[in-house]
Write a structure and sequence with these properties.
Length: about 90
């Protein structure tokens, strides 16, 4: 059975994101320096929210014909709350 193109895209983005996380961990161990490890970690802080937005967008496009505008607004509001919670310090 062939995979749905939207699910395949979302899963691929998550695999790339997970690979970047593993690469970052290896780099931190290789550098063995708290300052450099913090720099690598800071770069990852940018990747996470972008992957969240991208995968959510792809998923919403995949089910767009099944959702009303009201549900789109609620989903958008939920994603916005997540981003505020993640990015606010």
């Amino acid at each position: 059975m062939p995979w749905d193109k939207f699910v395949l895209s979302m899963a691929s983005l998550r695999m790339v994101s997970g690979s970047l996380e593993l690469l970052a961990a290896v780099l931190m161990l290789r550098f063995n320096n708290p300052e450099k490890a913090l720099l690598v970690n800071s770069m990852l802080a940018l990747v996470g929210p972008m992957v969240l937005i991208a995968t959510t967008t792809i998923g919403l496009i995949g089910i767009a014909d099944k959702l009303s505008w009201g549900k789109f607004i609620w989903i958008g509001f939920g994603v916005m709350c997540l981003l505020i919670g993640i990015l606010k310090k």
